[in-house]
Design goal:
There is one protein chain. This protein has 160 residues and is an alpha+beta fold. The model has no long low-confidence stretch (mean pLDDT 90). The protein has 2 domains: 28 residues, no CATH class; 110 residues, no CATH class. Strand 3 and strand 4 form a beta hairpin. The longest helix has 11 residues. It has a 5-stranded mixed sheet. It is globular. It has 5 helices and 5 strands; from the N terminus they run ααββαβββαα.
Length: 160
Amino acid sequence: MAQEERTGRRTLEYSTWHRAPSLQRFTRYATSAKYVLATDIDFLEYAPYTFQPLMLVEAAEDHGQDKKFVAPLVCLAERARVLATILLYTLATTPNPTNTRWLDIAEFRVKVVYPKSSEWRQFSPTGWANMLVVLRDVDGPAIVEHAIRTGRLVTMRKPK
């Protein structure tokens, strides 16, 4: 992920084009267009320098929902042998001071969905930021998975 937001804009053109009503315009297999399925992957956390995948994340604003459709994400995580999570965030009422066009985040709710589903855990922005840093340690994925399951981050890492 680029460290700076490049466009400040997300487009839905491909998403709209990829849906059955649109695809039917271009194929003689119009009735089969409803079986052309896709989903976006919100985030792939990866290691610096090696670019090894560490965690797949399905992210959404938290509206109190307990479920999110993640079956394809879980299948991909299983094939890639990486941790997969659902991350829900609650918006703050104040802007993010690093880019005031967007609201800051007040809280996260996170659930492991692969390798084994967990209960939801709440994290402060500081707590989740620390998880993302620890994730890049040698045993980071296992430490983060354990922390989400137990609500406790246990690591020997010394802050820099």
